[in-house]
Design a protein that fits this description.
- The chain has about 220 residues and is of the alpha/beta class.
- It has a single domain (about 5-224), classed as TIM Barrel (Alpha-Beta Barrel), CATH 3.20.20.70.
- The protein has 11 helices and 8 strands.
- An 8-stranded parallel beta barrel has the order 1-2-3-4-5-6-7-8, surrounded by 4 helices.
- Strand 4 (about 85-90), helix 5 and strand 5 (about 110) form a beta-alpha-beta unit.
- The protein binds cytidine-5'-monophosphate.
- Cytidine-5'-monophosphate binds near residues 115, 116, 173 and 184.
Length: about 220
Amino acid sequence: MKKPKIFIACDTTNLNKIKRIIRETQNSKLPFGYKFGLEFLNSKSGRKFVANLKNKITFGDYKLADIPNTCASAIKAIKDLKLNYITIHISSGLKALKAAKKVSGLTKIIGVTILTSLDNKSLKEIGFDKDVKKLVLHQTKLAVKAKLDAIVCSPQEVKIVKKIFKKEIITPGIRLLGDLIGDQKRIMTPKEAFQNGATSLVIGRSLTKGNIKKNIQKLIRELK
Ligand code: C5P
């Protein structure tokens, strides 16, 4: 299977909507992977659906943030899903990252840096002294130490991350031209994100709101 260029964020609890997203991203010129997050995976039918999904690149966006033993145990508990990717917050600490990596088998472990919904003001609120770029760089060094397989960061930090992280760099915080920004803060267009060096993008609402096929056509035009 081709490496996904786009991970489409399947953020809904509606099984029919998920099936529609999968159907309408088939045969597209772009290779798609499917990102399932807290909303769908915690829904009644979500886990079972993902466990039975065949021949798709799957991304379990669990965003684990816990002590090493709990992170490792959680990864073991979802082994049956045979996910291609799982996320863990780098802020869980080096030991938790290493513990996750140790039990992950064929599943790639993605380290999540600072959420794309946060800016410098929000970081201050939480109590962080460093600005976003410094913090993301700092966290990337931890991901290198833990030998993680991929990094999630905003497209605005890709150039910095790329200098020290040589594997996959996946960027959410993507909006097609003219789309609503919503709760995101550090955003870019798909074209800009790839130009900066992202290896793949996570796109949710810009593709899943409204007519999915038309949105994909718009994405393809923007990427030209
Ligand atoms: O709809 P939108 O494109 O903003 O969705 C972005 C997706 O990426 C969501 O599923 C969100 O949980 C996820 N994500 C993010 N920022 C991160 C990590 C993941 O927006 N840093």
